[in-house]
Amino acid sequence: MNADAPPIRSLQSGPVSPLVLEAPGAWRGLVIAGIFLLAITPALPLLAEALTSSGQAVMSGVFAAAVQGGLVIGVLAASVALVLGVPTGVALTLYDFPGRRALMVVLALPLLLPPFLIALGWSMLAGGGLDGPAGPIVVFASWILPLVAFATYAGGAGLSATAVEAARLAGGERGAIVLTARHAFVPAMAAAGLGAALSIADPGPGQVFRVQTAASEILASFAALGDFGLAARQSVTVAAIILAAAGPLAFLVAPRIAEALMARETRRVRRARMRGPRAAAGAAAAVMIMAALLTPMIGLVSPLAYSLVEGGDLRWLSRAFSELLRTGGDTLVYAAGAGFIAVLLGFALAVAVGRDAGRRRFAIAACLFLLCLPPALAALGMIQLATAAPAWADPVLRSRFALCLTLGLRLFPVAALFGLRAQATSSPSWTHAAAVHGVPLALFLKRVTAPHLAPAAAAAFLLAGLLAIADIGTALLLHPPGAASFPLAIFTVMANAPEAFVAALALVYVAIAAMLLFALWRLVGWKRA
Amino acid sequence: MTGNSGFELHNVSKRYGRQVVLSDISCTLPAGRHTALLGPSGCGKSTLLRLLAGLEPPDSGEVVQGGKLASTPEGMLIAPHKRGVGMVFQDLALWPNLSVLDNVRLGRSVSDARAREALAHCGIEPLAKRRPGELSGGEQQRAALARAIAAHPAFLFLDEPFAGLDWETKSALLEMISALARETGPTILLVSHDPAEVLALARYLIVLETGNIAEEGSIHDAINQPKTSAARHLRTYTLGLGRANPQEADQP
Amino acid sequence: MSRVFLIAIAALALVLALAVWRPWSGRDAGEVVVYTSVDDVFARPIAEAFQKETGVAVRLVPDTEEAKSTGLLNRLIAEKNRPQADVFWSGDPVRAEILKKQGVATPYKSPQADGLPAAFSDPQGYWTGFSARARVLIYNKDRVAAGDAPRSVMDLVNPRFQGRACLANPLFGTTSMHAAALFAVLGEEGAKRFFNEFLANGGQLASSNGDVRRLVAEGRCAIGVTDTDDANVALMEGKPIEIVYPDADGMGTLVIPNAAVLIAGGPNPENGERFIDYLLRPATEEALATSAAAQFPLRAGVAVPEEMITLDQMRPMEVDYTALAGRLEELNRGFLKDFADRAR
């Protein structure tokens, strides 16, 4: 950020003025290009192979059908999540009802679980009842729903209390609800799109419910055919298709996001307390949503409960705890490291993008593209880079840091979306005021920009960290020997381990993660999350 | 609409956390009596407006409209949008994601024609398709006003609606509102610190100080025998006007 | 706010510093890095016993369940020029053979290999087979009467199990090896006919052998083909299943030996050899036989649990394991991929 626009520096003889943050400058393009280049670097070896190698045609009929299947599942799951998640988010914004906090905690749970485990939980309960596209749709919907609900909630939090009051005055409760939903719809759509993109890159639930998706085809190319070139070509094809579908949407949505979050002094929406039958209805709805999200957990944990009741057998729980002790520290390192890198890059990108609509659209489109690439692309590329590099680079390329870096680079688009949003809520007059009072850039960044972005950064850190440790494929390929993460341990152990043991592992993992999340939440404050 | 009959407050109190904003207030706001709410910042003026509009329940006491119980600490018996109240909020409360026209049509009861009529009335019909972010400060204020009057409310609550406006725009808007009050007759309840606005729109005055009613009566009386600093300020202002234009000072 | 913020930044920077610091040192003589495709629950106790006995720390990297990820094999191949692993303990000879073909393995003839039958090892010494699993039929006792029990893999296409038979996706894991073996034994035509008839008979494609176990145990399928360890786990959990060693009077049961592979240019070659020596000892075969893995020893004379079916009690399918890998590659890209696509 040292390369600033020359005219501004020439006006000032002292330190760099914070005005560079509002002015155009070559540094913006450089920073944006640098970040995206860095993000795509691990995937470059395989992308290069994809473009240069010739081989099996990408768009065979089977692959086309699989892509279609994956897209349909992603879109339907996102739609279901929208239909349920937006009202949930609106209710969380506008009302206090019995079970509200419990609902918020439970909403965070699916994000902790890799979709594969959610799928397993459902399939244990439903038997074959969910085989086919229904299964992955249910799984991904319950996984995307929290994203949508929280995005709606965050969008509502950017709304002023008087705006809601004006709506109540004009159209009553119904008006307030409809308008709040409409207001939050753009961020909710963005969250649903994000979830759909991530789901399309995830082969797990498709495997469990025996549905052929684009992701499972790519996995087959990687794992069964060993044809990395084909896998890479398929990945790029899928990403391009998603981009072609989502690109125009992102193009339309990007300026709206900025506008919906115009800078203004707002009084936070005061939640109305529900009473009487309404409170009961609210509580009932909350319970239903919670039940839907907890159902797969019940499926996962039931074998353990069975063994506990049957023989009072605590062996599996204690073994699960020893697995946790073995891997817990490294897991935290991966989550925190990946979250940190993601937030660093994402927010740097947001600052560099600034308020320009064109740059904003480009950034959002590029972020979506990156998210659609399967994680294996970057992970295998990273291994190849590390193998080609000299041994002294090992502390960076073959350490826990390497895994943090790869996950951080994969998930930085998630943080970038948070950053862009937070950036849009800052007022240009802040920088103007700072410039008038001669506040240097560094101090401005520290005193104004950083604290302003901090809550969003904390949320992005949490989400990126959670998504990072749920990414099993990358962890398997890149973790240093002996430094597995806990979810990875669950995955490696679950082959042929007794069901009760897997259940104990899942239970311990979710319980610990939920406790940590809850503690962090309390630390940062309920309001911000 | 429950409409044209006025409001009564009976022993109303309101707290935010530990801070008592209104303590045991009783007063009446009959239809047709244009009233100004005065008092120092943070004395509870805006809260009083929100209690009357039904946006918040009182902690104790009750709000009565047209002889019917409207709000109690247990909740709303008359919903906000059934009270015949239009309101211009201090921060205007325009929805940034909606066009001006959609902002005016916020309530479903407002037809397209009525909304356009209100926009025309406020002189911003050509801007109907724009979003609030694309308007100047004065235009935003007009949009908020158009929204408040579009449903032809029985009461028009104005919460410092003209803060930060240039004198020309402000006087044009004041002119327009008082004309509106004369024609279709919404009863105005104005919160303001500006004597000019108070004098232009209100005939009656309630002064709040630290959550209590410190003074209440016609503006004429208050200027002649001010009891509070707010009323004295008003008096000083009219006397100042008097030096420049004695005729106006006689007829506030 | 600002202080909390700075503390948070400092803490995270510390985390990253911690991440850069390697928890082990590759040049430390006191350890060995073992990648394994054997299930974690079976491999870890062996690794821990080795560590206890020799004092050499084992860093075990197990694979995720088949078909759920890109897998360790790709990691090994990608790391070929500067490997992190010393040993690959493969659950089947096909992966070992792939490593040999890719130039990732190096030959090692262990002194402990005495008594292991040569048919189950690479003649050039790139991989050595020991304790084995078998590909078995399982059937649900509630859904199949004892008299109707399947006896041959061919029963998967028998009309009496129409719509009730399952097989794991043959693109992955030991099922792919089984498919290659069927092509070797039945011939191109015979094998293709088998797979096509499986579909025509309404057979279900499961995502993995563990999935086959679940489907049969829950009664959603009547019969299926899986590995002995999967079947044994289901038995131990009290599921209503029965195991059949198929084709005892025909082509025989496919035996899947473990394969120990020394990685070429690994960081701790001596310890790698020590670990392989340990794996190949009769005591390890015995431990694997008595554990839940229920792997039968390839050596004669190793003590085993009474009920265990050993190599001399079954009719092993006669296949050239080194040839299977090459065949598999071609099949995976051709017929089997097509078969898996048609099965959906």
UniProtKB/TrEMBL annotation, chain C:
Coiled coil: none annotated. Keywords: Signal. It holds the Pfam family SBP_bac_6. Transmembrane segments: none annotated. It comes from the Bacteria. InterPro entries: Ferric-bd (IPR026045). This is Iron ABC transporter substrate-binding protein.
